[in-house]
Amino acid sequence: MIRVVLPPNLRTLAGVGREVQVEVAEPVTQRGVLDALETAYPALLGTIRDRSSQRRRPLLRFFACEEDLSDEEPDTPLPEPVVAGKEPYLIVGAMSGG
Predict the structure, then answer these.
(1) What CATH number does residue 53 fall under?
(2) Residue 96 forms part of a structural domain
(3) Mean predicted confidence (pLDDT) in 76-80
């Protein structure tokens, strides 16, 4: 099981707490995690990534093991601590404004 930490706005949409767990087939990639998350919580479909292009939404960032994975290829395997469930995969709302 992969642990995923969601920002407050996505928690509200999905009707869940701070952290959820999703089952992801090997190899565990960002695409696999997001596919599983959208399947388990259909209200999130289109909120994390664009429905047609599958690109992440501009004001969201992805982190794991203190690394920014936002610009990594979607099919790059996630770090072993995330795969083992020791570390969460974080979806973070970026700050904007002035």
Answers:
(1) 3.10.20.30
(2) no
(3) 96
